[in-house]
Amino acid sequence: xxxxxxxxxxxxxxxxxxxxxxxxxxxxxxxxxxxxxxxxxxxxxxxxxxxxxxxxxxxxxxxxxxxxxxxxxxxxxxxxxxxxxxxxxxxxxxxxxxxxxxxxxxxxxxxxxxxxxxxxxxxxxxxxxxxxxxxxxxxxxxxxxxxxxxxxxxxxxxxxxxxxxxxxxxxxxxxxxxxxxxxxxxxxxxxxxxxxxxxxxxxxxxxxxxxxxxxxxxxxxxxxxxxxxxxxxxxxxxxxxxxxxxxxxxxxxxxxxxxxxxxxxxxxxxxxxxxxxxxxxxxxxxxxxxxxxxxxxxxxxxxxxxxxxxxxxxxxxxxxxxxxxxxxxxxxxxxxxxxxxxxxxxxxxxxxxxxxxxxxxxxx
Length: 364
Fold this sequence. Notes:
This protein is of the alpha/beta class. The protein is 47% helix and 12% strand.
């Protein structure tokens, strides 16, 4: 942030009305803002004053928002940029993942969504955690059960997570049951931009349609208990594929507003591409949640990772509900045994077997 206490913000839009609206909204939130009517004018201002936050319209002539931000990042690679648009095409929806934008706001901009973006982007009140160095992040991953191992398969997941963890975009984590998706979701929350906020989980497979409407979203679009609780934080939707089709459509219609107010992480325990081809996933919901994905492989695909997971679990018996502390030789023998087993239930099966053996040892 700038050396002064007040953050510096630049907004560029070729619509005078939109500039006035955003300026008024920012004033209402006690933020001062500089305005520009074109990408060229905005670049001139940015060269004079390296702003803490840059907000830009998408559709402008002759320089659109993407071209403008590309030039901004050439000047200051660490610049925080937000895209505002009334045209949510595929390019705009994928802006955060591939074009250097911190976030995307849909027009017309409402004060709640703008306030949330400003607070996260500028690290105020709740505060962003700051971007962790790759080495530090890798070290933290070594403490996450779902990310342990040296296989090529988990290496791909870790690399993709490093690229995505600082995004505010919704993330879809898919893979077989028991592969550690919930551990990874918690890791994203604790080490991403929402680390200092609350963490709310919804197990969609455990709720009927009426309960979903009370907890998440009503037919009239009113937010339920869990959505209101998750506002400004992280919402994890377990078993998103289990949602009834009618509710999927309700969620898809409201998803942009929801995603602007919290970080949404969806966990799928089946292949959503297959569910889409079978007609059990709403097309619009699939599009909303699947632009940023992590696919976690089964232990059957990466058996060499079993040892790292087992030794991690054994080293933290209380954390994983294990009633016995393994000695070194006992741990070595257990690892050999586990590597020979078919762990069809993945990490769940691994944990269950270690607990069972521990209970046997503890019982003498």
